[in-house]
Amino acid sequence: MVKQSDIDEAINACDELQTSEVYGENVKRVLRNTKTELVQMGRPRKNPIQIDDQGREYFEETVTAQGNTGRIYPPKDWIGKKIRCTRLD
Asked: From CA 3, how far away is CA 47, in angstroms rounded?
């Protein structure tokens, strides 16, 4: 797990490099994108990941509407993993 202080330090470094006159627009665009990703990394999940009695990770979330279906947002590191969604109420 990355420490919040390390993320804050990297965000500050991106800010300093963006203000520099040495770098072109392409480098500044990459720095903006990197800063955005760092900010998202440091932001805690609205519904934190918990661990059940058997050691499996889970989170509780309210399903939101998406066209004719519903949607939940699992953590990014769960992409490509097999998950189970259980209705609680």
From this structure: 19
